[in-house]
Specification:
With about 170 residues, the protein is an all-alpha fold. It contains 8 helices and no strands. The protein is about 80% helix and about 0% strand.
């Protein structure tokens, strides 16, 4: 199976070199940041590869269209690859991909944490409302494991449930 994959990959790559050498040359050098991200990224999701590769391709695509619909020659491909502004756009887009990859996960984690804390606050408020409406008898040993009171309840209520009198 591995041999077939390598064989067909090399066959397709060889045909592309024969048919579209300027495109292969241009993409080979312009998509280097995506290749580096694919090699470095060891996670199963390949998040760095998608972030960097996607934005790198966004920076490469306009110049690739110029190559395809203009003069599709090695000279034009080399002209694009030696233009400083073209390289700045292509590699700058890849740099933005790295920035997204590195900065977005902490932001998302903090948003999820704030949402979780808000949900917990709402659930505790609902719990207090239910206990006030139905009384303390809705809390059972099976729900709380041995009759323990939730941490939000006061000591007075836990004493009342355990059979001890509340201090007057």
């Amino acid at each position: 199976m591995q041999f077939k994959l390598i064989f067909w990959g090399l066959t397709i790559f060889s045909l592309l070199i024969i048919v579209a050498l300027p495109t292969v040359l241009f993409l080979g050098f312009s998509m280097l940041p995506a290749l580096v991200a694919a090699i470095i990224d060891r996670t199963d999701e390949k998040s760095a590869t998608f972030c960097v590769g996607g934005l790198n391709f966004c920076g490469v695509f306009p110049y690739l269209l110029d190559l395809w619909f203009g003069d599709h020659s090695l000279n034009q491909s080399m002209t694009l690859l030696t233009d400083v502004y073209t390289l700045a756009v292509m590699y700058g887009a890849a740099g933005m991909g790295w920035m997204l990859y590195l900065s977005l996960p902490p932001v998302i984690a903090s948003v999820i944490q704030v949402m979780s804390e808000r949900r917990l606050e709402q659930l505790r408020k609902t719990q207090k409302t239910i206990i006030q409406e139905w009384g303390d008898e809705i809390i059972t040993d099976a729900d709380l494991g041995g009759g323990a009171m939730p941490p939000m309840m006061s000591d007075d209520k836990s004493n009342q449930l355990s059979g001890a009198e509340a201090p007057a």
